[in-house]
């Protein structure tokens, strides 16, 4: 192998969205030399697309809010499959993470008394989402980006080098984690760094580091209709699998109820939940607010039974219940799916979502509260949302499953020195994520991952070692393979077929036969992806980049399909046509995916069953026993084992 | 409605390049980025282009379409006649890397020269109190998606490479205005805007405002007020006197 560029750091963060940047800020603030490696330009990560807000129980709008209420809402939203410890930490720490952003320059919308305003959102009992119009993700990413610049300015003053302790390697893709043997971990190894290539030049680069934080986001690009950007190819999940760290809960994929459906080229682009949080309603082709017919038993007592009560709730939350348009996302997505199937859909296969006449301030209020939505529909669909209804339908939005992590430290149990935070990690959101809980998740667990990666890197000190040359050679050979292929497959075609397969066969409603078929097709696609060849040279070559990303998408899609086939119940983001009920027995089951042999020619996924950790007694006490009986087995209910 | 469109796309790298002709299918509702993606999938797999969100939120896919700086994802094909040739070229102000991808590191270097938000000493997180009306001015500027189209179009650097060292461009002059108008920022921004970031070079032709995909009133709401603040201070007799006294006191 030719001489390869090498960089040595204490902590390498892969991914520059909310979780990655927050982790990097934490590691650097603790004095460690930190690198951020990201596929796109700095500041372009998928976090910018988050619209509605950050959930944090600051209680600025309704003082009855607090971490316990937020914790309860999160567990209910996830149908009790969440790792309760993550939900607890998240609910407790989210307010501090939001306030901290303000001290770094974020400008949230305000309440009348000058505090951070909070808005209603699906599944949240009180107005809880700190927001900036409907572009909260942009505010978050820009604030963290500017915080990183501030830290670099500090280093410039102290060392004469702004990148002395914190450097962003942008447009650089990591293709393999590097490890060295270590008997102390489940997979028998620990982190030594990462191997990647510069997108601009195609040249390879090696990061030597004892600690790596994966913060690469989701997997949406495995599906045809998605709100996700091109980067969401399951990189972190695949890197973890290949290094020996398992994924959990991969069957739980969130289909956001409201994506654009027309024109075809924008199908899937997100329509923020704030539209409903601020008064928007869903209508079918008969003009009926159909959501009232879809309130499931577990939520019956919490939601309005009539449109009149639902409407009153916006101004009087003490005496009315919330409208069912604000049910958790999985419920709304399934309801829309049913309406369309029953022939009551909109002309382009969705339903109607309208804010016309739903805000006291009329047109002006709509444009002030939902500026991006106004802009998006006007420019991309010729629809004026202040005068017409939008057409919306479900779109693949978020994966609840992900890398198994320790709730407190974000460390993976599989590989020493490997941490994961944000969407790439699993457990926090259970079977379904509440809107607004993602941005707060990024900050809470991004900070924790950065802290513990830094601590670990400090502890390991001189014992750190570099990866063996064979690993680098193998990584290089793997990355160059698409140039050496004869009788090449077109990587774009393989990708399109993968997306179609997942969309049609492992989508919002699942059946055994279809998922078995999907697994057969995934095997075929795997074989074809191995033959995906590229034209041209290594310099900024998107065909080559996609050919390499295919490995990751195929691996994570197989995890989704295998787990979904195995779980014989319906819960949150996993709906089985053939097993429509939720099962308390299945709630305790955690499905984990790992790779049979990471060095094999063809990679295949192994599924194992684990058991959920029982919830701590003081947290169980936050719920009424009646509610717990809907989710837990008799043996798990408090007071049974005396 | 499906038709075949004529596209001319600049292909090349640092060593030079040329416009290449393509004939490509266009379907109803598509944007220019869809067409670029179709070209990649069918005719030119190695055609380099930056993009991320395809929803006008990330500011990655900046380029020039028929000579006008635009986001590829927000330019609908319906704005062109079916027989019109659509020419796509990289942003002209920044060095080309390959095809439609340019080296925008100039902007990241300038961003690092703007001192960061400086809150009052002793103000703890959670204690911040600001009125909506007071944050709205800066919020407008924080809508910026950093597509750098304003930087690309600003003739101060588009036509005069030599100005790049002394001029931060509309994006970062607006960032300074944003901080200056932040209700709780205590740093002095005005002197640096003029002396270090080249505010004086801007002659308010509003080209930046014209191309802003977020419709931010960069010139009217950021640059002109900033110029006024600088001018007020420069010619304010009290400020002038204060500066004189301070200077004398510090011994220069």
TrEMBL record, chain A:
PANTHER family: SUCCINATE DEHYDROGENASE 2 FLAVOPROTEIN SUBUNIT (PTHR11632), SUCCINATE DEHYDROGENASE [UBIQUINONE] FLAVOPROTEIN SUBUNIT, MITOCHONDRIAL (PTHR11632:SF51). Residues 10-439 form the FAD-dependent oxidoreductase 2 FAD-binding domain. Residues 453-480 form a coiled coil. The active site is at 329 (proton acceptor). This is Succinate dehydrogenase flavoprotein subunit. Keywords: Coiled coil, FAD, Flavoprotein, Oxidoreductase. Residues 495-597 form the Fumarate reductase/succinate dehydrogenase flavoprotein-like C-terminal domain. SUPFAM superfamilies: FAD/NAD(P)-binding domain (SSF51905), Succinate dehydrogenase/fumarate reductase flavoprotein C-terminal domain (SSF46977), Succinate dehydrogenase/fumarate reductase flavoprotein, catalytic domain (SSF56425). InterPro entries: FAD-dep_OxRdtase_2_FAD-bd (IPR003953), FAD/NAD-bd_sf (IPR036188), Fum_R/Succ_DH_flav-like_C_sf (IPR037099), Fum_Rdtase/Succ_DH_flav-like_C (IPR015939), SdhA/FrdA/AprA (IPR030664), Succ_DH/fumarate_Rdtase_cat_sf (IPR027477). Its cofactor is FAD. It holds the Pfam family Succ_DH_flav_C. GO terms for molecular function: steroid dehydrogenase activity, acting on the CH-CH group of donors.
From TrEMBL, chain B:
Pathway: Carbohydrate metabolism; tricarboxylic acid cycle. It holds the Pfam family Fer2_3. Residues 5-92 form the 2Fe-2S ferredoxin-type domain. GO terms for biological process: respiratory electron transport chain; tricarboxylic acid cycle. Transmembrane segments: none annotated. The keyword Metal-binding applies. GO terms for molecular function: 2 iron, 2 sulfur cluster binding; 4 iron, 4 sulfur cluster binding; electron transfer activity; metal ion binding; oxidoreductase activity. GO terms for cellular component: plasma membrane. InterPro entries: 2Fe-2S_ferredoxin-like_sf (IPR036010), 2Fe-2S_ferredoxin-type (IPR001041), 2Fe2S_fd_BS (IPR006058), 4Fe4S_Fe-S-bd (IPR017896), Beta-grasp_dom_sf (IPR012675), Helical_ferredxn (IPR009051), SDH/FRD_Iron-Sulfur (IPR050573), Succ_DH/fum_Rdtase_Fe-S (IPR004489). PROSITE patterns: 2FE2S_FER_1, 2FE2S_FER_2. Its cofactor is [4Fe-4S] cluster; [3Fe-4S] cluster; [2Fe-2S] cluster. The keyword Transmembrane helix does not apply. It comes from the Bacteria. Keywords: 2Fe-2S, 4Fe-4S, Iron, Iron-sulfur, Metal-binding, Oxidoreductase. PANTHER family: SUCCINATE DEHYDROGENASE [UBIQUINONE] IRON-SULFUR SUBUNIT, MITOCHONDRIAL, SUCCINATE DEHYDROGENASE IRON-SULFUR PROTEIN. Belongs to the succinate dehydrogenase/fumarate reductase iron-sulfur protein family. This is Succinate dehydrogenase/fumarate reductase iron-sulfur subunit. The gene is sdhB_2.
């Amino acid at each position: 192998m030719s001489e390869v560029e090498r960089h040595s750091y204490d902590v390498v963060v892969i991914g520059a969205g909310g979780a990655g940047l927050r982790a990097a800020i934490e590691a650097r603030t603790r004095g460690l030399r930190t690198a951020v490696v990201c596929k796109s330009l700095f500041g372009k990560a998928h976090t910018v697309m988050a619209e509605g807000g950050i959930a944090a129980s600051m209680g600025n709008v309704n003082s009855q809010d607090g971490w316990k209420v937020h914790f309860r809402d999160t567990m209910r939203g996830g149908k009790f499959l969440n790792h309760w410890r993550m939900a607890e930490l998240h609910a407790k720490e989210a307010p501090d993470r939001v306030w901290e952003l303000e001290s770094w320059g974020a400008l949230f919308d305000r309440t009348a008394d000058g505090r951070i305003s909070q808005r209603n959102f699906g599944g949240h009992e009180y107005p809880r989402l700190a927001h900036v119009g409907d572009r909260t993700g942009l505010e978050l990413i820009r604030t963290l980006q500017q915080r990183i610049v501030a830290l670099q300015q500090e280093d410039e003053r102290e060392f004469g080098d702004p990148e002395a302790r914190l450097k962003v390697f942008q447009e650089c893709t990591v293709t393999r984690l590097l490890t060295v043997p270590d008997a102390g971990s489940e997979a028998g190894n620990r982190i030594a760094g990462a191997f990647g290539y510069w997108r601009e030049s195609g040249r390879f680069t090696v990061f030597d580091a004892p600690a790596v934080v994966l913060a690469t986001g989701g997997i949406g690009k495995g599906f045809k209709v998605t709100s996700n950007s091109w980067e969401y190819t399951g990189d972190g999940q695949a890197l973890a699998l290949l290094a020996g760290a398992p994924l959990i809960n991969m069957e739980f994929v969130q289909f956001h109820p409201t994506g654009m459906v027309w024109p075809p080229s924008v199908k899937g682009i997100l329509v923020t939940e704030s539209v409903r949080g601020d008064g928007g309603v869903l209508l079918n082709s008969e003009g009926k607010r159909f959501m009232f017919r879809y309130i499931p038993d577990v939520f019956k007592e919490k939601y309005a039974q009539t449109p009149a009560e639902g409407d009153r709730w916006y101004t009087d939350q003490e005496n009315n219940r919330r409208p069912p348009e604000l049910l958790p996302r999985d419920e709304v997505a399934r309801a829309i799916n049913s309406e369309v199937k029953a022939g009551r859909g909109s002309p382009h296969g969705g339903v109607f979502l309208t804010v016309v006449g739903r805000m006291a301030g009329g047109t002006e209020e709509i444009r002030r509260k939902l500026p991006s939505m106004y802009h998006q529909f006007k420019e991309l669909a010729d629809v004026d949302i202040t005068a017409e209804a939008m057409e919306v339908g479900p779109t693949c939005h978020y994966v609840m499953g992900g890398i198994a992590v320790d709730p407190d430290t974000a460390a993976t149990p599989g590989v020493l020195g490997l941490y994961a935070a944000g969407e790439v990690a699993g457990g926090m959101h259970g079977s379904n994520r509440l809107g607004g809980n993602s941005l707060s998740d990024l900050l809470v667990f991004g900070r924790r991952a950065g802290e513990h990666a830094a601590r670990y890197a400090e502890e390991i000190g001189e014992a750190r070692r570099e990866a063996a040359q064979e690993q680098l050679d193998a990584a290089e050979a793997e990355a160059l393979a698409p140039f050496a292929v004869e009788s090449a497959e077109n990587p774009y075609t393989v990708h399109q077929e993968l997306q179609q397969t997942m969309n049609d066969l492992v989508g919002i409603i699942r059946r055994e036969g279809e998922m078995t078929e999907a697994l057969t097709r995934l095997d075929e696609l795997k074989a074809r992806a191995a033959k995906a060849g590229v034209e041209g040279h290594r310099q900024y070559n998107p065909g080559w980049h996609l050919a390499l990303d295919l490995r990751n998408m195929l691996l994570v899609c197989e995890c989704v399909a295998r787990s979904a086939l195995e779980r014989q119940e319906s819960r949150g983001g996993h709906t089985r046509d053939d097993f429509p009920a939720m099962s308390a027995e299945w709630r305790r089951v955690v499905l984990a995916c790992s790779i049979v042999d990471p060095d094999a020619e063809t990679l295949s996924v192994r599924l194992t069953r684990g058991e959920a950790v029982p919830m701590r007694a003081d947290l169980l006490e936050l719920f009424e026993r009646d509610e717990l009986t809907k989710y837990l087995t008799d043996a798990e209910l408090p007071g049974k084992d005396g | 409605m499906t038709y075949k469109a004529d596209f001319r796309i600049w292909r090349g790298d640092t060593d030079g390049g040329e416009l290449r002709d393509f004939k490509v299918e266009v379907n109803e509702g598509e944007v220019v980025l869809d067409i670029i993606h179709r070209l990649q999938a069918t005719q030119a797999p190695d055609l380099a282009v930056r993009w991320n969100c395809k929803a006008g939120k990330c500011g990655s896919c900046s380029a020039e379409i028929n000579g006008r700086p635009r986001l590829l994802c927000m330019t609908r094909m319906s704005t062109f006649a079916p027989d019109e040739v659509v020419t796509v070229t990289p942003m002209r102000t920044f060095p080309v890397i390959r095809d439609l991808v340019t080296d925008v590191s100039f902007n990241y270097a300038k961003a690092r020269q703007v001192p960061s938000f400086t809150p009052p000493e002793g103000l703890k997180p959670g204690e911040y109190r600001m009125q909506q009306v007071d944050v709205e001015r800066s919020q407008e500027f924080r809508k910026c998606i950093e597509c750098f189209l304003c930087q690309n179009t600003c003739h101060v650097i588009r036509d005069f490479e030599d100005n790049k060292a002394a001029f931060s461009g509309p994006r970062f002059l607006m960032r300074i205005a944003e901080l200056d108008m932040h209700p709780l920022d205590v740093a002095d921004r005005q002197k640096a805007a003029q002396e270090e970031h080249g505010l004086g070079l801007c002659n308010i032709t509003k080209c930046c405002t014209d191309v802003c995909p977020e419709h931010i009133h960069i010139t009217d709401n950021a640059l002109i007020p900033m110029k006024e603040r600088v001018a007020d201070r420069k010619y304010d007799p009290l400020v002038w006197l204060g500066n004189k006294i301070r200077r004398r006191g510090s011994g220069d």
